[in-house]
Amino acid sequence: MSNPFIIDGMNSAIQKLLNYSRLEAKRGFDNRAVVGGLQKMLEPWEAEARETQLPENLIQLVTGRLRDYPRLSPDSRAEILEGLWNRLSQDLPDVRGAYAPEQTLPGPEPEPIPQTAVEEPKPAPTKEPEEPELQETEPETGSSDEPEPKPAASEPPAALGAPLTTISGIGPRSASTLKKLELESLGDLLWHLPRRYDDYSQLKTINRLWYGEDVTIIGTVDRINVRKVRGGKLTIIEAIVSDGTGSIRVTWFNQQWMVKKLSSGDPIVLSGTIDQYLGRLVMKSPDWELLDRENLHTNRIVPVYPLTAGIRQKWLRRVIFAVVDRYAERVPDPLPPTIQSSAELVSLPEALSQIHFPDDWDALHRAQQRLSFDELFLLQLGVIRQKRDWEDLQTSPFEVDDSWVESFTSALPYHLTDAQNRALKDIRSDLSAAKPMNRLLEGDVGSGKTIVAAAAIGITASNAAQTALMAPTSILAEQHYHTLCEVLPRATGIEAGSIRLLTGATSEADKKAIREGLSEGRISVVIGTHALLEDPVTFNQLGLVIIDEQHRFGVEQRARMRAKGNNPHLLVMTATPIPRSLALTVYGDLNLSVIDEMPPGRQPIETHVFLPSERLRAHRFIISQLEQGHQAFIIFPLVEESEKVDAKAAVEEHKALQEGIFKPFKVGLLHGRMKPDDKETVMEQFRRQEFDILVSTSVVEVGVDVPNASVILIEGANRFGLAQLHQFRGRVGRGEMQAYCILIPDSDDAAENKRLEAMEQTSDGFKLAELDLEQRGPGDFLGTRQSGFLELKAARLSDVAMIEKARREAVRLFDDDPALDKPEHQPLVEWLDRFWNIARGEMS
Question: How much is the pTM?
Answer without folding.
Answer: 0.62
